Amino acid sequence: MTDGYSPTWRRITIVILRPLLYGLLKRDWRGRGNVPREGGVIIAANHISESDPLALAHFVYESGRYPVYLAKSTLFDVPVFRSVLRGTGQIPVYRDRADAALALRDAEDALRRGECLMFYPEGSCTRDPELWPMTGQTGVARMALKTGAKVVPVASWGAHELLPYTKTEKTGLAGTLKRGFHPFPRKTMRVVAGPPVDLSKYAGEPLTKTVLRAATDDIMREIAGLLGELRGEEPPAELYDHHKVLEQRRAAAERGERGEDAS
């Protein structure tokens, strides 16, 4: 084992997955030179499908780095996954438990060891009806500002045609997608990496909610801009806030119920 992973396990995944992905998917890759070849780095990407982690991992590997994801801790309880995840150095995330802080600590340690960590700042596949990135959670900004690691923004497009996310909105572009796995005809995975996000204005600042929110917004705007390049469209001026939308829907439902009671 080397720094928490097995070189043998990493080689096994490369031997199996690399030819599989080359055969399954076509590629339109841009900006691989923006992924640093060494040192701890955070790859921050948009999330449109449960299949885009493999497409993104392929892009990052061919850019010269082995991708390390933060994976749900429950996956480490499944025997068939446990050996692979631990052997390749993936990091478990413990949700809704006191252990959640340990995942961030382990991620920070991995960055200091020089690992390439893969993050989806949105926290889940986008719920934006047009599949633009949502507002992000602040974990990426916190780790970057705490460790000094670079944040490389990455946008991908095409995985939604291979395997649409089942919980997207039923309107807009998302509403036009056919559910299920669609490997044929071969789909093109379009991926672009931009230069590291400039977070220098936050250096040395206390990691307050305001600072983390502003840094996160900078990261998400960079990702949205890159996605606009891939799509040939202008990203929305204001990113979709899923929590705000849910609150608005709950408020509307409560107003409706009160109206019915009054009648």
The major β-sheet equals: 7 strands, mixed
Shape: globular
Strand content: 5-15%
Terminus-to-terminus distance: 69 Å
Question: Strands across the major sheet, in which order?
Answer: 1-7-6-2-5-3-4
- Helix percentage: 40-55%
Describe the structure.
The chain has 263 residues and is of the alpha/beta class. It has 8 helices and 7 strands, in the order αββαβαβαβαβαβαα. α4 crosses α5 (139-147) and α5 crosses α7. The longest helix is centred in the C-terminal third of the chain and has 23 residues, at 209-231. The model has no long low-confidence stretch (mean pLDDT 92).
Write the layout of secondary structure elements.
Layout: H1 7-24, E1 25-30, E2 41-45, H2 52-62, E3 67-72, H3 79-87, E4 91-93, H4 100-112, E5 116-119, H5 139-147, E6 150-157, H6 159-162, E7 187-193, H7 209-231, H8 242-262
Parallel strand pairs: 1-7, 2-5, 2-6, 3-4, 3-5
Antiparallel strand pairs: 6-7
Descriptive labels:
263 residues; alpha/beta; 7-stranded mixed beta sheet; 8 helices; globular
